[in-house]
Structures are given as structure tokens and as C-alpha cells.
Amino acid sequence: MRKPERPHEHCCCRATRQATGSRWKEVTSERIMSPAATDAAESKPPDGGWGWMVVVGAHISIGFAYSTPKALSIFFKEIQEDLGASSSEIAWISSIMLAVMYAGGPVSSVLVKRFGSRPIVIVGGLMCGVSMVTASFGRSIVYLYLSIGIIGGCGLCFNLNASLTIISKYFLSKRPLANGLAMAGSPVFLCFLAPLNQFLLGDFGWRGSLLILGGMMLNCCVAGALMRPVTLSCNPSAVAALKNMETTTKHNMSKKGRCLTNARQFLDFSFFKDRGFIIYLMGNTMYIFGAYAPIVFLSAYAVSQGVEEYSAAYLLSIMGFVDMFVRPGTGLIANSKWIRPRIQYFFGFAMIFNGACHLLCPMMTSYAFLVGYAVFFGVGFGMVFALIFECLMDLMGNQRFPSAVGLVTIIECFPMLLGPPTAGLLVDLYGDYKYLFYMCGAVIMSGGLFLIIMNILHYHMLEKEKAEHNGARRSPETGNQDGVSLSEAQREPTEAESAPMNRDPQDPSTDDTGPDITDHF
């Protein structure tokens, strides 16, 4: 009689399955998990609570990060006359500042992983304040390149990347809305910084204005203080198992292996194996090249059409005011069940709309028409920047996003650096601003069309690969993917092949965050 032995056999089988599952989890975790131990053991993000205070802090830091290079254009005419610089030379100030902000992405990502978002944002705020104060004493254009461009750009970089990263940790299902509210900081701050800078310029000159602006930017330190680390409930045994696994892994790793791991955290080139990431990067690079030049030269173009200086400065405020409402509205639309699975197409449409506005701008010669251009420009610009990082999160997932955004920003620094000076060169060569709007509009529209066409091909290939996989190995459940993007549903098909059990596609917590080590086989 074998009945008394069956419990023992059952325990042995279950122990074998648990051992096999643990080994699979260890291998899979080493392959896809973030180096941060706490990330791997996270449960579902809170999607609220203190996260909304974090959104307020991100709203402030991102607002200064994106609005400062635009609002500084109010001072460019006075700086150009005072220092005797050309239009192309003066445009390098914003270009260097934006390029450094983007190029410092990998460094900022590593620092955020090491120290967290709160101290990085505080340090970034201090650097921004110091940069503007030191720039107020500048006597040459090169001095402004160093103070505003290099130091200020580094501070803005710390503010931007740390804010985006902590939002991805606090939110998942409400992430598009949270991103839209945080990114709305750019138009909100631009809306009041543009007329404020014009007022300060008239009363204190560009040097005194930069001094006051530096003091205002110290508020980023207050915003950073709101970004306390996220605390998630975890299985204690899972955390202990993860720590033991990491201890064993670190003990077995050689010095060379640790160096390679650290280098991979700094720049992870494995993203270039992802077809969706390459499509996103190419389209986004084309957009960034033409995105900022129209903003830098909008006030100067209006003045050249006979518009009074204060009215020309208000064009940026009008654009910012419209942008202020468009970004959270776009976040709500992107979070809908119909749009979110097609968010990459929505992103391409926003780029095409933005480019079309620039192509029509040279036809706007009166102030009333320029106001209309500013309104539509704000709509297009707000749509793009409400989606630009959400689309990257959609493609890469929460765990890979910090490294991905660092790589994207360092690549985008090159078109960011060359865009406004190239537009300024066209102004110097032809003595007319309309050619820069033609150039920017054509490049941006091309990028939007590229994204839509290539994503259609990309998703068609994913469906074909999925059909081939299902034909070879039929999955028992397909599940409903409403409310989850195509990229999230179809990301990493090889992981599904290697998994011994199916993940529920309706559970947002499975959004590319790696296997949940609290599961039991």
C-alpha cells in the first residue's frame, strides 16, 4: 500500500517545483530586473496618496526645466546688443543649456538610482540658482555659455530626470494623467515667466533680471523636498530571498563583471535591439531638432512684423496658457481605453499637427494671426510633450525607463544643440525669419509621418511574430488587453516563451516590471 507515502511524494514534487521556479526566477530576474533591489520586490505602485504631492514637486521642477530656456529668449535682444553677438551666437545659449540638460541624462539616471530623486532635485535647484546669479556678472558670450549653458543645463538635467523617474515609481494605471499634470509645469511657468521677464528687463536690465531669476529657481529645492521615496508593501520572505540572491551574485561576480554591470547602468546599449525603441528614437530626434527654434525666435519674429515688444512677449504667454490645459487634457485622453493601446500613433499625430503650425506661421503677418498661431502652437507643443515620455515608458516599462530615458536624452542632445543655431544661421544668411519656420515645420512633420508609418509596420510584424509563436506553442489563455497599450501587451515575447506560467494581461502590475517574486508555483 502506497497511500501513506503520497504526502511525502507530494511534498517532494512541490519542493522540486519550487526549486525549479526559484531558479527560473533568479535567471529571469538577472536578465530583466533593475539593479535596484527594492524595485524588484515592489508590489503595485500606490497610484495616488503622497504621489500627488510628488506630482506637485515634479510640476515645479519640470516647469523650470523646460520653461527657462524658452523664457530666456526675452533677454536675447538686449544681450545681443550689449555683447555685440549675432543671432546664431545668441541662440547657442539656449542650445547649450538644452543640450547639456539632455546629455546629462545617463549621469542623472545613475545618481537617481544611487541616491534617490529627492537629493538630486535639491542639488539641481542649487545649481540652477548659482548659474543665473553668476551669469548676471557676465562680460562675454562665452561666459554665458559656461554659466547658463553648462552649469544651468546640469541643474535642469537633475531636476528633469529625477522627477520623471519618481513619477514612474508612484503611478502605473494613472501614469498618463500624472505625467500630463507634471509636464504641465512647463506651460504654466512659461505663461508667467515670459511677461515677468519682460517686466524685469524693463526695470532691472538683463543682468538684474538674471539675478532675480536665480533666486526664484531655488524653489526647485523645495520641490525636491516633496519627493520622498516610495514605500510599497512587500512579502518579507521575498525581500529576504532577493537579498540573499543579490549577495550570492555579488560574491560570484568578478571585478570585471561588476565594472561591466556599472557601465551597463550608465549606458545600456541593449535598447538598440528593441525595434520599437529605435523607431521612437529616430522620430523623436527629428522632432527635437525643430522643436525649440520657433520658440526662441518667436518674439523676435513678431517684433520684425511691427508688433510692440510687450505684445510680442505675450505670445509666449498665450502659447504657455494654452499648453497649460492641453497637457493634462492630453494625459486624460491618452489614458482612455481607446487611445492608450494606440498611444504611439497619437504621438505621431501630435507631431504632424505641430509641424503644420510652423509651416503656416510665415503667413501670419498681423498680431491677431500671430495670436492664432500661438494658440495652435501651444496645442501641438502641449500634446507632444504630454506624450513624449509616456510613450517611452509605454515601450520600456517602469524598470527599464530610467536607463532608457538617460540614453534617449544623451542622443537627443545633438539635434537639440544644432537646431536653434541652424535656425539662427538661416536668419543671418537671408535676413528673414520665415525660412526657419519652414525648416522646423518640414522636419517635425517628417518625424511624425515616420513614427506613424513605422509603427504600423512594427505592430504588423509583432502580430506576425505572435501568430507564429502561437502556432508553435498555443497559450491556454489570451486575456483581454483593454486599457493596456500595444507595446505593453506585446513587449518581450521571448520572456513569455521562457515563463513556466502565464501572466494576467489585465493586471497593470505586470507592466514589464519583471516576474513577481512573491508568486508561488
TrEMBL record:
Major facilitator superfamily (MFS) profile domain ranges (all copies): 53-459
Top-rank lineage group of the source organism: Eukaryota
Lineage: Eukaryota, Metazoa, Chordata, Craniata, Vertebrata
Transmembrane feature ranges: 50-67, 90-112, 119-137, 143-164, 176-196, 208-227, 277-301, 313-333, 345-365, 371-392, 404-423, 435-457
Comp. bias regions, Polar residues: 477-488
Reaction(s) catalysed (UniProt annotation): 4-methyl-2-oxopentanoate(out) + H(+)(out) = 4-methyl-2-oxopentanoate(in) + H(+)(in); 3-methyl-2-oxobutanoate(out) + H(+)(out) = 3-methyl-2-oxobutanoate(in) + H(+)(in)
Pfam name, any one: MFS_1
UniProt subcellular location: Basolateral cell membrane
A GO MF label: monocarboxylic acid transmembrane transporter activity
Similarity comment text for this entry: Belongs to the major facilitator superfamily. Monocarboxylate porter (TC 2.A.1.13) family.
Recorded topology in the membrane: Multi-pass membrane protein
GO cellular component term of the entry, any: plasma membrane
UniProt name for this protein: Major facilitator superfamily (MFS) profile domain-containing protein
